[in-house]
């Protein structure tokens, strides 16, 4: 039994051309369209940026601590490791506007109905020619812990001075600071 026997060629040829065109569009490589990024890959990219930002902050803090601790009497050579539990938090300036629209309706039987629509519009404040918005406040990241390995840390007084200096510089509790003497080659 031939299914196409009753279909006229005038309809069949355009139908085949349409199907072929749709197939070509579906299987083309996307010409100038923007690439579609899977959701899990977008989350991974954001997490990678956050990890990189935290790592940069940790390195900056470590460098500053090493510079300060090496200036202290009896400390000697120092290695510092800082671990942050959160990243830098920034609040940005916004221009906001709120529009409130109230509508009152009454029907023929004397009943009234009132509806209110509130629209908020917040936009980041961008200085002329700048690519970054205006920052209103930055909150320091939380320090999870600090490890200091110093040549002079075998002396209890030097160890206590290092501990106090780190506690003061980072404004963290004593239990987050570990000071150890530098060991030799085994």
UniProtKB/TrEMBL annotation:
Residues 94-127 are annotated as: Disordered. It comes from the Bacteria. Residues 102-116 have a biased composition (Basic and acidic residues). Residues 118-127 have a biased composition (Polar residues). This is Stage III sporulation protein AH.
């Amino acid at each position: 039994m031939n299914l196409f026997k009753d279909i006229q060629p005038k309809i069949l040829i355009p139908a085949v051309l349409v199907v072929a065109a749709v197939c070509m569009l579906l299987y083309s490589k996307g010409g100038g369209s923007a690439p579609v990024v899977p959701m899990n890959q977008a989350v991974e990219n954001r997490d990678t940026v956050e990890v990189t930002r935290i790592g940069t902050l940790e390195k900056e803090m470590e460098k500053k601590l090493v510079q300060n601790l090496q200036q202290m009497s009896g400390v000697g050579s120092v290695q510092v490791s800082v671990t942050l539990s959160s990243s830098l938090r920034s609040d940005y300036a916004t221009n906001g506007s709120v529009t409130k629209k109230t509508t009152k309706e009454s029907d023929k039987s004397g009943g009234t109905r009132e509806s209110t629509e509130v629209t908020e519009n917040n936009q980041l404040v961008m200085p002329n020619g700048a690519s970054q918005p205006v920052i209103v406040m930055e909150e320091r990241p939380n320090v999870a812990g600090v490890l200091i390995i110093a040549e002079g840390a075998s002396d209890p007084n030097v160890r206590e001075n290092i501990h106090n200096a780190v506690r003061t510089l980072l404004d963290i509790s004593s239990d987050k600071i570990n000071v150890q003497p530098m060991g030799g080659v085994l």
